[in-house]
Amino acid sequence: MRIGFLIPHLFAQNKILDETIFAPVTLARNLIEELSNLGAHVTLYTPFPLDSSATENINIKTDSLEKELNLNKCTLEELIVENPLAFVSIARQINTEITAKAFTDANENRIDILHVYLTEDETPLYFADLIQKPLLFTNHDPYNFYRKYRVRFPHLKNLKYISISKFQQSTAPKNLNFVANIYNGVKIDDYPFNDKPNDYFCTIGRIIKNKGVHHAIEAVRESNEKLRIAGKYYSDEKDPEENYWAKYIAPEIDNKSIYYEGFLKPPHETAQFLGNAKALLFPIEWAEPFGMVMIESMACGTPVIAFDCGPVREIIKDGVTGFIVKNSKEMSEAMRRIESINRKACRDHVIKNFSVKRMAKEHLDLYRKIYQY
Fold first, then answer.
1. What are phi and psi of 71, to 5 degrees?
2. For residues 170 and 178, what is the distance between their CA atoms, to the nearest angstrom?
3. The domain made up of 188-353 is a member of CATH 3.30.40.10
4. Rounded to 5 degrees, what are φ and ψ at 123?
5. CA distance linking residue 254 with residue 260, whole number of Å
6. 119: Cβ–Cβ under 8 A, 6 or more apart, which residues?
7. Other C-beta atoms within 10 Å of 108: how many?
8. Less CB within 10 Å around the terminal CB: N or C of the chain?
C-alpha cells in the first residue's frame, strides 16, 4: 500500500530535532519505520529534510525562511519568541506549499491514502475537498486547546479523524467524525527493563507550571525521599509564567534531596534516567491528550504516580502499574507504597497496549479499511 504521510510543521526537520523534543515527529518516525517493516510504501512530506524509514522524503524550497532568519540574525526557535507574527506568516506559506505537493501527488495517483499527522496548520483541513484520495487526520492537542481549534473543528466535523485517547475525543465538538482511537506507542527496545532501581524518584519534561514539578517537590519533601528533575526551563526574561523556574523550582534544588539533571536526549539518556528511578512522578495540572513519558517510564519497568487528569486512567492501571492520586499529599503517601508495584507488570502493560508495533498494525488495518471502503 502506498501511504502518504504529511507533517506540515517547521519543526519537522533534522536540525531542530537534534536538540529539541517534539513528540509528534518522533512518533511519526517510529510509526513510519514499523509501517515500512509491515511492507507499506511510505512517502513522507515535510518542509525540510527529515531522516526516517520512509521510502521517499519530499520537501520544498525554503529559501525565504533562511533569508528571514539571516535578516533577523536569529534561529527558528528564537524567531518564535522575538517575532511570532513573522514566524506564523512564514509557517503558513511553507506549510501550504508542502500540503499542495502532497495533495497533487494524491490526485496524480502517486499515493493511495494521505495521513496528515499534525493539524496545527489548518490548510490541509480546509482543502480536504480538493483531494481525490482518502484523507485522515491526527491531532496531538486537545480539540479545545487553542482558540483556533475551538473555531475550526465545529465546521469540519465530517472529515476523518484518528484520536490518540478517548479523553481527547471528549474535548472535541459533538459528533466529530472519529474513525478510530489509536493509542501512541514506544519502541520497546529503546527502553530497557530495569528491575533494580536506584534510590530516587523523578520528573522529566518541560519545567513549566502546568507540568506540576512544584507538586512533586512538595511530595518528596513530605516523604523524605530524593527527587531528580530533568528537562528544559525558561530563562527569567523568556518565562511567560512569572519566572516559574526562578521562583518555585531553582530555590528548592539543594543537591541533597532535590537535584536538577538538565536536558536529557531521548531515547537513551531518558531511558536510563527513567529506568533507574523508583517511580516517575507525573503531577500534571493540564489535561493533555496523552502523555508519552508515562508509557516510556513503564516500558523501563518504572511505575508512575500521576494526578488524576486527562487520559491518565486510560494509560495507568491504578495499583498495578502505579498509582493515580489527587494531590501532592496523596502522591507522598503513594511513594511510600511504591515497592508494592511489580515492575515487570509495568513493562508487560506497555508491550501489550502501547508498543509502536501495535500502533503501526492498527494504523495499517485502518488505512486498508478506509481505502477499500
1. -65, -40
2. 11
3. no
4. -55, -50
5. 9
6. 125, 137, 138, 139, 140
7. 9
8. C
As a residue count, the chain comes to 373
Q: Which residues of the chain have pLDDT under 50?
A: none
Give the per-residue pLDDT at 24.
Answer: 93
CA 240 – CA 66 distance, rounded (Å): 27
Report DSSP state, residue 121: S
Determine whether 254 is exposed, middle or buried from the number of CB atoms within 10 Å of its CB (0-12, 13-18, 19+): exposed
Q: How far apart are CA 218 and CA 83, in angstroms?
A: 37
Determine the Cα–Cα distance for residues 298 and 296; give it in Å rounded to an integer.
Answer: 6
Q: How many CB atoms lie within 10 A of CB 66?
A: 11
pLDDT in tens, 269-290: 999 999 999 999 999 999 999 9
Closest CA to 347 of 197, 193, 196, 201: 193
Q: Which pLDDT does position 91 carry in this prediction?
A: 86
Q: Cβ atoms within 10 A of the Cβ of 39, count?
A: 8
The cell numbers describing 248, all together, are 518555585
Grid cell for residue 230: 530533568
**Residue 335: all three cell numbers together:** 511513594
Instruction: Extract the C-alpha cell encoding 166.
Output: 478517548
Closest CA to 13 of 56, 53, 52, 41: 52
Domain assignments of the chain as residue spans, ordered by start: 2-185+356-372, 188-353
Which grid coordinates are listed for 51?
531522516
Q: Which CATH superfamily is domain 2-185+356-372 in?
A: Glycogen Phosphorylase B; (3.40.50.2000)
Determine the 3-state secondary structure of 60 from DSSP.
coil
